[in-house]
């Protein structure tokens, strides 16, 4: 099992996105491995998830993929990871990914990534997760989502201090520094 700090990375599985996002995913996977951290992902082999996994594996890093059985049955899992943990549902997958990590970083992604990011922010708000959450805003990808969160605060759907639930980075090194700034080792509550 995981013997060092682990970073969960949420990201796209799409293969039709711009090259700059693949390059960022590769830099993140490489940097996580170089820092001696464990990479935790949804175990996908395609898109940014495949790229971040491939880069960490290539750099000699420890990689853990967490994936529901139905996705394994469809052959969507990465076959070169250090560990593959199979869950019975999407919900248990997300819980396991959070439980294994001291921080979460969201690379650009689609609706699944949005859902994972907003759920982990919600869990942090509720005291279920207290690891750092970093939005890696490559090329302004998350600008509109961040504006929407500001609108929710401005219109009193969220409290102003909820801005402290996440941070925003524009480079891989900045994201990792923010993710690790409290040197935490595990942050998932048993209250879940």
In round numbers, the mean pLDDT is 94
The profile of the biggest β sheet is: 7 strands, parallel
Number of alpha- plus pi-helical segments: 7
Strand elements, count:
7
What are the low-pLDDT stretches, counting only 5+ consecutive residues below 50? Answer: none
From N to C, what is the helix and strand string?
Answer: EHEHEHEHEHEHEH
Structural class: alpha/beta
Spatial strand order of the main sheet: 4-3-2-1-5-6-7
Overview features:
192 residues, alpha/beta, 7-stranded parallel sheet, 7 strands, 41% helix
Describe the structure.
The protein is an alpha/beta fold and 192 residues long. The protein is 41% helix and 17% strand. It is built from 7 helices and 7 strands; from the N terminus they run E-H-E-H-E-H-E-H-E-H-E-H-E-H. It has helices at 19-34, 47-58, 69-73, 90-100, 111-125, 143-154, 172-179; strands spanning 6-10, 38-41, 62-68, 83-87, 103-106, 132-136, 167-169. It has a 7-stranded parallel sheet with strand order 4-3-2-1-5-6-7, sandwiched between helices. Helix 1 (19-34) packs parallel to helix 2. The two termini are 22 Å apart.
In short:
The chain has 192 residues and is an alpha/beta fold. It is built from seven helices and seven strands.
């Amino acid at each position: 099992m995981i013997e060092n700090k682990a970073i969960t990375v949420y990201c796209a599985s799409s293969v039709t996105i711009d090259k700059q996002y693949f390059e960022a995913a590769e830099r993140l996977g490489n940097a996580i491995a170089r820092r001696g951290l464990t990479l935790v992902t949804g175990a996908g082999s395609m898109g940014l998830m495949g790229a971040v996994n491939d880069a960490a594996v290539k750099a000699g890093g420890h990689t853990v993929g967490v994936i529901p059985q139905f996705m394994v049955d469809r052959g969507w899992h990465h076959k070169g990871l250090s560990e593959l943990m199979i869950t019975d549902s999407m919900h248990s997958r997300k819980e396991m990914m959070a439980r294994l990590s001291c921080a979460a970083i969201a690379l650009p992604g689609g609706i699944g990534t949005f859902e994972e990011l907003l759920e982990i922010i919600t869990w942090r708000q509720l005291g279920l997760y207290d690891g750092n959450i970093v939005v890696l805003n490559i090329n302004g990808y998350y600008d509109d989502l961040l504006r929407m969160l500001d609108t929710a605060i401005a219109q009193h759907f969220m409290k102003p201090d909820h801005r402290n639930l996440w941070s925003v980075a524009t480079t891989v090194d900045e994201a990792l520094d923010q993710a690790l700034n409290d040197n935490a080792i595990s942050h998932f509550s048993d209250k879940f």
